[in-house]
Amino acid sequence: MTLKPEEQWRPSVTWDSLIAEMDKIVKFPGMPNIWWMPIQTRTEMLATGIRSNLGIKILGPDLAEIERIGLEIEGLLQGIPGTRSAYAERVTGGYYLDFHVNREEAARYGLTVEDVEDVIESAIGGRNITQTVEGRERYPVNVRYLRELRDDPESLRRVLVEARNGAQIPLGQLARITMASGPPAIRDENGSLAGIVFVDVAGRDLGGYVEEVQRLIRERVALPAGYSLAWGGQFQYLERAKARLKVVVPVTIFLIFVLLYLNFKSVTRSLIVLLSVPFGVVGAILFLYLLHYHLSVAVWVGIMVIMALADWFLPFVYNIGFPGFQASVLVWLFFGGLLSLERMRAAQAGA
Questions:
Q1: How does pLDDT run across 174-206, given as a tens digit for each residue?
Q2: Range of the domain at 213
Q3: How many domains does the chain have?
Q4: Is the same domain home to 321 and 335?
Q5: Same domain as 257, residue 346
Q6: pLDDT (tens digit, 9 = 90+) per residue, 62-109?
Q7: 3-class SS letters over the chain
Q8: Is the pTM of this model over 0.70?
C-alpha cells in the first residue's frame, strides 16, 4: 500500500490515526492486518523468521494439536489491550491428491511402480527434458499435459501409461486416486514440529505486553504434555539486550570508576563525579513519562549515550569548580537526554 504525500492528507490526520482508521476498514477473512514498512517486514522475516513484531511459537509432536492450541491463543489475545491483530497459522489446511499404485494390476501389464510414477511425474507434474540456449542464457524446457487434461481427478484417471508391449492403459486402472488433507508447510524447530501465532502489538511496551500474555496463557490455556511455547520476533532482541546489559552496565560503571580514580587519586572525588550518571538519566526518564513513550532497544541506547556523556564531561566540570557552571552542565545533560531520546525514537519510527 503506497500512501500519498502528507501534504495531501486530510487535516488533523496523523500516522497513528490513519493506521487505526485503515485497520477498522480493511478486513480480509483469514488475513490479519500488520501495518509495517515493507523493508521492516523483510528484515524481520530474515532475522527472526516471523512477519510481525511478536511471534508465539508452539512446539510439539502433533500438528493438529498445535493448531488447536494456536487457535485458542489467538482468541485469547483478541481481548488484551495492545493487540492490533493476532493470527494463528493453519498448519493442517492443505489438500492433496494421493496416488496409490496397485502393484498387481501394474504387474499384469509388465509395469513397475517406478514406471507408473514416472508418468505421474512427467504428465501431471512436469519434467525438464532439455534446455534452450539463447546466447549466454539457458532456459529449461518443461513438458507435461495440457491443463484441461489434468485439472480434475477424473481427467487424471484417463492419463495413459504405455506398457512394454505398446498398449496404452488408463492411470485409473493402475492406481487409486484419493483426496487427503495435510499441512501446507511443515515448520521444524529444536527437533519438534512448530506453529506460530503472529501478533501485531501497538500502543504499549512489548515487554509488559508479553508478561501479561504469559500470565493469561498460564491461567487459561492448558498445554498437554510434550508441548511448549517459545517467544520470537522483536521480543528476542529485547531479551538478548536485557541479558547483555545486566553484564555490560555493571562492568562499564566499574571501569569508569577505575579511570576516575586513576585521574583524581581519590575515592571520594571519583564517587562524586560518578553520581552525575543519575542526573543525566533524569531527563530521559521524565521525557518517557510525559510523552508516553515505551521502553525499547533504541530508547535504552539513548539512555546509555547520556550516561556516557555525563561520565565523560563531568570530570572537567569538577576541576573547574564553578557551582554555576556545574549547574548549567547538569541542565545541559537534562535536556541532552530529551534530545538524544527524541532522535532515537525518530530513528526507530523511520526504520
A1: 999 988 888 888 888 888 888 888 888 877 878
A2: 32-91+185-232
A3: 3
A4: yes
A5: yes
A6: 888 998 999 899 888 888 888 888 888 888 778 888 999 999 988 988
A7: CCCCCHHHCCCCCCHHHHHHHHHHHCCECCECCCCCCHHHHHHHHHHHCCCCCEEEEEEECCHHHHHHHHHHHHHHHCCCCCEEEEEECCCCCEEEEEEEECHHHHHHCCCCHHHHHHHHHHHHHCEEEEEEEECCEEEEEEECCCHHHCCCHHHHHCCEEECCCCCEEEHHHHEEEEEEEECCCCEEECCEEEEEEEEEECCCCHHHHHHHHHHHHHHHCCCCCCCEEEEEEHHHHHHHHHHHHHHHHHHHHHHHHHHHHHHHCCHHHHHHHHCHHHHHHHHHHHHHHHCCCCCCHHHHHHHHHHHHHHHHHHHHHHHHCCHHHHHHHHHHHHHHHHHHHHHHHHHHHHC
A8: no
